[in-house]
Amino acid sequence: MEIKPKMKKNVQEYGLYTLLVIVQGVVLSTYNPVAAIIFMCLLGVVLYRALRVNEARTYEWNEYIESLSIKMDETSKKTIESRPIPICVIKFNGKIFMYNELFSEIAGKRSLLNEDIDEIFEDIELDKDLNEGKEMYTDIVHNGRQYTVIYKVIKNGEDSSSDYMMILYMIDRTEYRKMRKQYLDNKNVIGIIEVDGYDEVLKSAREENRSLLTMDIERTLSELETTSKAALKRISGGRFFIVMTRKELKKLESEKFEILDRIRNINRGNSLPVTISFGIGVEGETVADNFKMATGALDLALGRGGDQVVVKTNDNFAFYGGKSKAIEKKTKVKSRLIGHALREIIMQSEHILIMGHRYPDMDAMGAAVGIYDICKSCDKKANIVLSSINEAIDIFGNKVRKNEYYKGIFINHSDAIELCKKDTLVVVLDTHRPSFTECPELLDISEKIVVIDHHRRGVEFISDTVLLFHEIYVSSTSEMVTELIQYMDQDIKINKLTADGLLAGICLDTKNFAFKTGVRTFEAASFLRRIGADTIEVKKLFNSDISDFIVKAEIIQNTKIINNRICIGYTTSEIDNVNIIIAKAADELLSIRDVDASFVLGQKEGKIFISARSLGDINVHVMMEKLGGGGHIDIAGAQLKNVSLQKAYKMVHEIIEKYLEEENQKEEK
After folding, report:
1. How many CB atoms lie within 10 A of CB 224?
2. Which residue intervals define the domain GGDEF in the entry (predicted)?
3. Architecture of domain 83-180 in this structure
4. In this predicted model, what pLDDT tens digit does every residue of 231-245 receive, in sequence order?
């Protein structure tokens, strides 16, 4: 064995002393040579004796260290063997160096010395970075048992990797995880079920069939209660409270909540279909937490059009269903109440800032000038926040700028942020997502926010509002603003160009009254026509250049039809108004026979724009939501960043194929 550092130091000190004595002998020889010779002889004897003694002591020390090491190795081995948990020591090349009996029982072999650990436990990975002195964990399954492997790297030497070894401890977690799963499966979840438009659905049936219709609904929900081992209680006319275990909820999720289809099949001569919205709260710390989440989930389901289930956990949402269109409500009481409330809020505000979504279209801009006219009729200062006029609104926007009536109407982001105070009224139009707004910073400054929107609700939502007008059955935000103008207590004076903008917004979102058009849509259009809206001028607002037709032709040429039902096309041309052209192209692709939906992609300024259209049988909102977008059942879209056109095309293609696959599975059932 090597001489320890302390002993090396002793030898160096002896050499120094010897050197000093020799120097003294040399000095002595100059005075008395005989005495010097005798002195040097005695010095040699003493030095020889000292070296022999030092060598003997070194040998004895090494013998002691070696015997101690053997005892330590034996003690370590006995310690490992006596440990009450499976343990083994492996070299860093994966060969087993030492183990105990419990470990060999798990491995299923008596002799494991120099066996490769990877051949015994396939899930153990040793090719990780060295992390000396720290514990690391890996979960594995072996012979039907679940283990947590704790391994720690230790270093014996200084240089080579062969000096590294690893200690493995195996903790059997099987029973713990069974108990944990049983505990989680038996936890209660809370749900709230609401029959969509309950009163309207009952009124749509003959009077003698209404009681039968109610009985069918209750019987179907009672079947859900029985099969799910749940507890169901009717709260009010069309609302029910249900409690079930998480295990039963998982079964319903695996079945994609077939209750939605069973409810939808109820028919007692009712002209309106029977659908339900189902909000479920899971993973709350208390029953109150689950109830609160269930309420929020139900609100989200209703805001997305109903006929669906929303499962809310602490940090996530899951959506099921959502195939039916929202039922148009014929009553205008809500519009009248919202109009009155909006007027009161405007009258109490010194300044109003109006904004739509980024890259505003004619619906957002038409609604914005409509709110501007309401504020002006109330003698209040208002501005529309707009960074720049894009191609979708360039004709209308330039007309507004040149018109003296709208002088100073537009302000940029920096001016809006400077003007905005806590008590400044901010009106958000045609979107409910904070990140989609023209200037999200205003939402953080103002404490008075009004949201008017008709899109199906997404997870992201402006929650802190003083007034919310969110109706997803309405054709457009322009229609909603027109109703507010129409039913406000005070007479609102509307400029002719404002009327044109509102009618253009309705025409845009209804595709000239072809999609999502109800009785109230035509009534709003009639009102605008009476106050001066010109249909010819509205048509001119949508005129296109010849270059737009060329790009549209490219899209049609690049279009592929999947399963004879869905079109997907794209353009590689990067032009300023590509988002408008792909929307128009998606509309035109629906005119192809047997095509139920269309998807068109384009790119601009490093972003990928996707427009999706449907005739109603395919829910394009749900499909676009998977890409972070949204919209309606028949009109939706999405924007992607940091993604190539080819990759985005592949993503949309995969979503379409998965949708069709799920549809085929349901048909087979």
Report:
1. 24
2. 186-314
3. 2-Layer Sandwich (3.30)
4. 999 998 899 999 999
